[in-house]
Amino acid sequence: MDQTIRVLLTGAAGQLGQAVIASVPEGIELITTGRNGGQGMLGLDLADAAACRQAVETHQPNWVLNAGAYTAVDKAESEPDVAEMINAKAPRAFAEALRDQGGRLLQLSTDFVFNGEQGRPYRPSDSRSPLGVYGASKARGEDAVEEILSATGQGLILRTSWVMGPVGRNFALTMLRLHRERDAIGVVADQVGCPTCTHSLATACWQAIQRSSAGDSLPALMHWSDAGAASWFDVAVAVGELALELGLLERMAAVTPITSAEYPTPAKRPSYSLLDCSSSRQALELDASPWRQALRELLHSIPTATTTTTSSCA
After folding, report:
1. Residue of 70, 122, 134, 272 with catalytic role
2. Which of 18, 171, 204, 219 is most exposed, with minimal Cβ within 10 Å?
3. Domain of 17?
């Protein structure tokens, strides 16, 4: 690449941020930021819109890769203001600053902007209709990017689903822990989507940035997940089977399918939020791995110490 591309990354300490850092291509000058800074990262609180604008003015990036977000889906129901500041007002602040200073924004978004009721995979052009606070805040973040940057072509939105990686807090690591700790697990089987490995998502992010920087015309709104479809129950079973195969478990727990009604949560989740990624894969010229294969690679790359959180299981 003839010219260095300066990229300001938010959420660098998170699971996607770590995958983005691990896969940074040649020709990229990466400025990493996190809420608390440290470990080579600059401090940037996404709840502070003024700080977001100042970061763009100070570093004058060619791109802001906004991988940071408020992702606590259930907690968002009781903290709507915080979710709004991070998921909606921060992208608006980045978009306004980039419009004024120059540069582009790659905004990460979510399948939760859909209600899951249409019964077929969601295309990028389908109407947003979120069910809860988290999805609504992410949808307003999309609105801001489109409103401010669509006319100049400075904004890209990349929606994804069920993000899981070898580090951080995610469903795959939670299931691995529960397989170790319990004899039986009940896992929701009536919510269908597709897992997305952080490594493949990071690759899609870099491909979008590089191709767009090289002058290729990309859709302003794209979808990315691993290939196939699954329920949370399917993923839980696969974690146990693959972990046994890889020697991460001596035995797996018995996994029982349960309904969403049997595992009530503060936030309602879409029952069918599979993303249609076909046009986006074609635009990015990337093939997706089947989700079970990607999950195997994820489990194989887990470091010794991990942190987890529970979701969609009892």
Report:
1. 134
2. 219
3. 5-167+196-225+274-288
